[in-house]
Amino acid sequence: MSVGTILSGCSRAPADGGANVSQLDGGAQGPASSAGIATEAKFTQGSRVDRGFVVDDSLDVGGRTLHFSLHVPDGYDGSAAYRLYVSCPGWEGLYFQGVGANLVEDFPFVANDYIPNMIVASPQLDDWGQQSADDVVALTEWLLATYNIDAGHVYLSGNSGGGETISLVLGQRPDLYRRALHTISRWDGNLDVLTDAQVPVYMAIGLHDDYYGSDPDRATYQQICDAYRQKGLTDAQISELVVLDVKPDSYFTDHGRSAGASQHAGGGALFPHDSDIMGWLFRD
């Protein structure tokens, strides 16, 4: 199997199941800082189920309606704190594409293979900009306030346009998340806020990604490295905080993709099934 160019420690980059329908039997609630949004928000539970996810939940908060899919494991009864994973889809999963279109991506469905006792949410956003970033923050805070969540183990990922969105999220509320996975995307968010919070980030993309290219991630990686060096961190410390994984052409062909096929689409299909990538996100 081909191995990508995986950089950590700031090396220089080379040029080249069944749903738990009683979702709101929450038990103990999350942090007090998130409690306000729970009292302000109006939740409407959906009725459609897809592979263990209630597809069409909605939350009215701040004059907006947030649409999302939610999986609460059958064993959850509120007595023990569960972890939380928020997975933001790309353009094909936005709300205008149709209810449940976010679940064409496999990221939400593989999460419980790594951590069984984890609630998984997949928002259907309106775009990949600031309003959607605000919506992700609002949804995360509502989930923290509504369910018994281990607030120290909240994971975030974004694929393609969703990666742009989570970069904005991490540029405003990185304190909500333990780790973040940024796939086939580019970084739009505030790196000063991210590096002040020292939230670990893994960026994965194809060498010849046909939508973004790999150069934006390389540049972001170097900026993050430089910021951490200015803070006095060692390369060993930095390697725990940022990883750049640029997959070569052979990665895609070795995984059954045709030579010359879209690496952007290929990354979206292959990365959720790459245990090195997903294992990093959920490793602690």
UniProtKB/TrEMBL annotation:
GO process annotations (BP): proteolysis
MF term (GO), any: serine-type peptidase activity
Residue ranges of domain Peptidase S9 prolyl oligopeptidase catalytic in the record: 127-183
InterPro entries linked: AB_hydrolase_fold (IPR029058), Peptidase_S9_cat (IPR001375)
Top-rank taxon, per record: Bacteria
Name under which the protein is recorded: Prolyl oligopeptidase family serine peptidase
